[in-house]
Amino acid sequence: MKSFGASKEFLLGDEIPWEVVGEGVKRKIMGYDDTIMLVNVSFAKGGIGPMHEHYHAQVTYVVSGQFEMTIGDDTKILKGGDCFYIPPHVLHGAICLEDGVLIDVFSPIREDFMTV
């Protein structure tokens, strides 16, 4: 795995640009090193996180909004204050039912999110 070093110790959200990653979906990569990454993801109603899988463990906190979240064969509606865990290599995806924000934590770093 390529090393990306580490982010600065203090990261001010207003100074980090949004990256559009899909229709109605944008993200800000916040803190990271090679072993962990935190990503702020904003969804507009109708935004989709398509079904996918990766070798990273993922924990996500639902800051606001409402999401139809599928992990493996289970689908649940989650709202602000809820959380979910995705084990490595498990198929998952989300549909935003009400504008919202997710905070994703990945271990290790999502190399595919880093621009070279």
TrEMBL record:
Provide the leader sequence positions. none
Q: SUPFAM superfamilies this protein is in?
A: RmlC-like cupins
| Source species, domain of life | Bacteria
Q: Which residues form the Cupin type-2 domain?
A: 41-100
Q: Which InterPro entries match?
A: Bacilysin_H2HPP_isomerase (IPR052535), Cupin_2 (IPR013096), KdgF (IPR025499), RmlC-like_jellyroll (IPR014710), RmlC_Cupin_sf (IPR011051)
Coiled-coil positions are: none
Q: Which CDD domains match?
A: cupin_KdgF
PANTHER family documented for this protein: H2HPP ISOMERASE (PTHR40112:SF1)
* Name the UniProt record assigns to this protein: Cupin domain-containing protein
Query: What taxonomic ancestry is recorded?
Result: Bacteria, Pseudomonadati, Bacteroidota, Flavobacteriia, Flavobacteriales
